[in-house]
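Appendix B. Raw example, untouched.
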Amino acid sequence: MNKSDNLSKNKSGIIGKLFRFFRNVFAVIGLMYVVYSFCFDLSVITSDSMKPTLQGTWDTQQDYVLTEKVSYCFRDPHRWEIVKYPLKDEIGTIVMKRVVGLIGETVSIEEHWACINGKPVERPAHLDFLKYYGVGSLHNGKQVLCENGYFTFGDDNIDSYDSRFTGLVKKKDIEGRAWLIIWPPSRIGFVR
């Protein structure tokens, strides 16, 4: 074997390795794209209505939230989860709000507490800051029956366009649950 044969063999070996490397890289990228497309969605928070849990306005630093889309294929939303859904407005604004009233329950507000079927509902310790206000469909002690949908509230309840104004959220309209804040670095963590 002469030098030119060895050089040609080395070149074809390097080209083969490079080809396999890039083929594997593109396969991994393709798989990641498929998993992301079917299982996740990225949202940018542009409203303070879920403050302090999710933060952002049009002119300040915003939370980038990864929404998980698979859970609700197998189960119903749970109370206190934050769900993503479109409003029934002209442009289909996408919002994230906290589920408080479940299907079949009656929701009301008493002394800044959400009441389910006439009784204040206990909230998890990390949500002790929540105060609910009886406005919109819940003003003056009114109750709303969650016949075929979920009743949602914003965490910054006095400044939230939620089920008190927009009505119940049907399960088929829920696009997923807020799962993980991925940006800014100081706020990275699971959504609670």
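End of appendix B.
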